[in-house]
Design a protein that fits this description.
2,3-Dihydroxybiphenyl 1,2-Dioxygenase, domain 1; globular; PhnB-like; 8-stranded mixed sheet; Glyas_Fos-R_dOase_dom; single chain; VOC family protein; Glyas_Bleomycin-R_OHBP_Dase; alpha+beta; about 20% helix
């Protein structure tokens, strides 16, 4: 899979409604996973969206989620630029350059969903997410 660069939007509990709206606008296929599906069942956040992705017929990809507990999304901090794919060397190279002289909020390491993921803010204040898909075993 070729690496992709796309926006990742953050919401305060209305990610499902927003992503469904964007599906109405752009068409395409929408997939969503909740926090409850990833170990937070029975919590107030169980039905919130941990990750959603809209892939449109025009080739656009839009991702979004409700902020994790304690993370308030506000205008100006409610987006990231996401780099995704399965080319480990390429994406780690981007990560090293983007995080240099910036700040790392989530180290680039294996996550509960099986991929390698990290979050950083570059030296210009732009937030980035890097997700390296792992081969199915």
């Amino acid at each position: 899979m070729a690496s992709q660069l796309n926006p990742y939007l953050s919401f305060n509990g209305d990610a499902r409604q927003a992503l469904e709206f964007y599906k109405e606008v752009f068409g395409g296929t929408l997939s969503m996973n909740t926090y409850g599906e990833f170990g937070q069942e029975g919590t107030p956040d169980a039905d919130k969206i941990m990750h959603g992705m809209l892939e449109t017929p025009s080739g656009y990809t839009l991702m979004g989620a409700d902020g994790a507990p304690g993370q308030e999304a506000q205008p100006g901090n409610n987006f990231s630029v996401a780099l995704t794919g399965d080319d480990d060397a390429e994406l780690r190279g981007y990560w090293e350059k983007l995080s240099a002289d910036g700040s790392v909020s989530v180290p680039l390491e294996k996550q509960m969903w099986g991929d390698v993921f990290g979050m950083c803010t570059d030296r210009f204040g732009i937030p980035w997410m890097v997700n390296i898909s792992q081969a199915e075993s």
